[in-house]
Amino acid sequence: MPAFHLAPDHSFCAADKAYVFLDADKDRYFAFVGQSAGYFSEILAADRPGQLSCSAGNFAEHLLSTGLLIPLSPGGRALAPCSSPVPQRSRFEKACAMTGTTGSYAWPGMITALARSWTLKRTHSLKGVLASARCWKEHVPTGNTTDLEEVTRLTARFLTVSPFLFTTQDACLFRSLFLMRFLANRGVASTWTFGVRLAPFGAHCWVEYEGAVLNDHLEHVAAFTPILSI
User: Does 71 share its domain with 101?
Assistant: First the structure.
């Protein structure tokens, strides 16, 4: 067990010999590279502060003072990188091929999901948006089991109707939030994944179900290392 806990509303991943962090409270990404990444690796491997070298110990004190790390406490968040795997398949192309085969019955649910997603995005910080998305997923009845084929059909309905509700320039965050809400309204507990890449830096997010990407091509998503999954 690492010697410290991770501060609330933070997540991180290891990518290209660096550690990239997402601070949801401040809606920002930052990274440790080079020597700082080396010190952080030492912190991750230590069971207690006394095991750290002088330099790594000083870096840990700095991270404690900035609030990224907190002392061990009951119920604290484990200091561990995101363990979500990079998806190995996508249903996006199949869902795209099925668009236009759905009827108008998709509209009421889409409008409801759009209104709630749009209001949430406009009135809440990223921290609040993520908290609401977790709540949506938690409130999907645990007994609900929908196979991937049916989820693909639901995604096709979303892709058929959504171009009339927002443009292709809308950020991936809102598109994924909207899709997650649409699926939750139909009893599907999908997974919203955030990923990052370096050189050049980029951040992206997508929706998955049973490990399959629903709203993006696999080749695009594969370039990003997962940093947070809801």
Answer: no
